Amino acid sequence: MVFESPPKQDRILEDDAPIRPESGDDDIVAEIKSAILSKIVLAAGKDVKRANIHDWYIAAALTLRDRIVYQWLQSDRAAQRRGDKRVYYLSLEFLIGRLLTDALTNMSLMGPFRTAVEDLGIDFDALRDAEPDAALGNGGLGRLAACFMESMATLAIPARGYGIRYEHGLFRQIVSDGWQEEFPEQWLLSGNPWEFERGDVVFDIQYGGHLDRIEQTDKPSRTLWIPDETIQAVAYDTPIVGWRGHHVNALRLWSARAVDPMRLDTFNNGDHLGAMSEMARAEAISKFLYPSDETPAGRALRLRQEYFFVSASLQDILDRHLHSDGDIRSLPSHAAIQLNDTHPSLAVPELMRLLVDKYQIGWDDAWDITTRTISYTNHTLLPEALETWQVELFERMLPRHLDIIYRINVDHLAAAEKHFGADARSRASVSLIDETGGRRVRMGHLAFVGSHRINGVSAMHSELMRETVFADLNSLYPGRITNKTNGITFRRWLHQCNPELTSLLQDACGAAVLDEPERLRMLEPLSDDRAFQQRFQAVKRANKIALAQTIASQLGIVVDPSALFDVQIKRIHEYKRQLLNAIEAVALYQAILANPEGNWTPRIKIFAGKAAASYRQAKLIIKFINDIGNVINNDPAIRDLLKVVFIPNYNVSAAEIIVPASDLSEQISTAGMEASGTGNMKLALNGAITIGTLDGANIEILEHVGEENIFIFGMKADEVVQRRAMGLDATGIISSSPMLTGVIEAIERGVFSPDDPSRFAPIAHALRFLDHYLVSADFEDYYRAQRAVDMKWHSPEWARSSILNVARMAWFSSDRTIREYAEDIWNIPLT
Ligand SMILES: *Cc1c(COP(=O)(O)O)cnc(C)c1O
């Protein structure tokens, strides 16, 4: 590898520099030190003595980036030379988190960098924490995109992620008096050392206007789109390094800007505000991550964002392909475009528009190219989350695309008529236009029809796709739906976040376990070995002490690291049922009060997660968790047997601290509602035992770890459907459960909200009469399963099961998921 060799500058450090023996390669350490020092001076323009921790972070990141860039250009050149097929991963969200330790681990430079930084007298952990957590996503879907980027680089698949460079990512959550408050997030405020602005990669993105039809003799008529608004998309590239640093891909994020920011004519007329407002309108497109999670967007700005990044990405993909191949028709052999959910569905009509209008390809050929290039990942079947847009909004904003969608629908409905015959219901159900209650474009259907493969994200979810929302489309286009169960990158979610466990695993399974996770199986015989169990538990304990310190310093709550750490960390959503967990805490609290001498298991219930700013019930649940914590944590009669803790501002960095410290993983969604989950995988991989419903990937975790190593409870998906059909009233269930009755009555009496006794009336009401999420219906079985957890906690079986969870999670590596995408969807051979 070629390293730049800046002038040696160690002398700047003078005599107060700490002197300690260097671990490992002295040359590399010295080189890194001198590079960091020169970055402080030459890139930040600061005297080293004036540098603050943020300057040190920037200097370290730039130093590392220099090394990555060589590898990056090499990867690109090699792929180019071989004419490799490339993957383009289109996602409106990338929940990346911090990159420094990720890139250091994958470049195998963690040791030398740590030494170099500490030699310079800087605390490495403080430097790491100075990096803002890049949260360009809401939750699981965005985190999946980030894990996939890392796995594609690791597997040396030439790939590029495409998204939006939001100026403000997901809001920062502050919990004030138990209520969630949202504050803007400012990840770009002090600059982003990872990215390269590509001033030369700029595309025009157009909106609005009207269509002209040009009739041509002896040729089909042509359509001309005359847009009335143009803005520009500017590329910013972030290198993503694979494991061992062999291959580097780019994440290309688009930023919006006005075409002519100065609009001098307007200025000359003195209309400064008019010119500014045009700029603001353009720049608004990449200003904010759309703040909602699994709720209908309903706002025109969101559709503008979707078209903005799809159009820029497709223009870029076609430019690149033409440049390297010269023949637009060979696109499907050289490009695979993956749509992460329906947000990039406009890729279907946009690719058609570019092929037909710009490159003059006939409709049928263009359609063949489109469907062979595009594929689509579905992430949810929740009816309220299935994206649709009013036809009328489409017509105003993207008239040519609506025109193309209608044209696609003509052929599509003709095929449907042939297939379904007189069955008008099925024909209507597959149409790209929903004609019921105002005409709307169905984005999921659009993506489905324009793709050669449509995948679900867990076995159960893919099955439900075939049976429910996409049943008729599946019958019309059989064989297109396939399953690709999600995964997580073990580099971030094991090696990096849990280095102590990783080194124990290397001892037990050999160093090759870092490259071949299947070797984790070698832990199985050790799961009964008392000495190994003790080492394993010592690692867990150290991680729990670290989390306990974080909780103490952030919240002033003291938790005992020897208690069971019971963890539910994810977006706050009614279907994820944080409420079920919280009312179990209340029931347990009441049971301990009633029987203080019982053989109780000391437990810390740890919650973390953000609620969509507009989601009132979810925000009330956050307040509820905080309020019950206030009462329980401060009740001396409980003698610390139970604590309830809400850790604010859940993000990737918080997960990296909480996951390694967890004993019990709460995966308790209403069956049939969680498409996959990936938090469940992170926790099990780090030795937490799952308590969960038969939902999403929990089912596959059960199959892998074995039923004696997981706690399963609750209604199954088909039982949920039946139960709902009988109505949502839970009065009967409550009256047959004295415990649940006691919980709800305490809530209604204001036991947890003495300052406002009716505060939680909406929660009590939902539990009694609107039990859509089956919280009341599943309560007794959940309570029973939790007592089985208590029993096991006190036996050696706990350590055994915990070790077996780690031993059997290899399949959930996102490397496995990406290999499956490459083989079945992208048609990319892997060596
Ligand atoms: C993994 C992860 C998620 C997804 O969690 P689920 O439990 O699968 O919903 C959400 N947010 C962050 C920050 C994550 O790391």
UniProtKB/TrEMBL annotation:
- What cofactors are annotated for this protein? pyridoxal 5'-phosphate
**Species of origin:** Nitrobacter hamburgensis (strain DSM 10229 / NCIMB 13809 / X14)
Just give the chief location class. Answer: cytoplasm
Is DNA-binding tagged as a keyword? no
State its location(s). Answer: Cytoplasm
The name on file for this protein is Alpha-1,4 glucan phosphorylase
What Pfam families does this protein map onto? Phosphorylase
Q: According to its UniProt entry, what is the function of this protein?
A: Phosphorylase is an important allosteric enzyme in carbohydrate metabolism. Enzymes from different sources differ in their regulatory mechanisms and in their natural substrates. However, all known phosphorylases share catalytic and structural properties. Allosteric enzyme that catalyzes the rate-limiting step in glycogen catabolism, the phosphorolytic cleavage of glycogen to produce glucose-1-phosphate, and plays a central role in maintaining cellular and organismal glucose homeostasis.
Ranked from the top, the taxonomy reads: Bacteria, Pseudomonadati, Pseudomonadota, Alphaproteobacteria, Hyphomicrobiales
Matching entries from InterPro entries are given as:
Glycg_phsphrylas, Glyco_trans_35, Pyridoxal_P_attach_site
Which CDD domains does this one have?
A: GT35_Glycogen_Phosphorylase
Might you report a single GO cellular component term? Answer: cytoplasm
A GO term for molecular function: glycogen phosphorylase activity
GO biological process terms, semicolon-separated: glycogen catabolic process
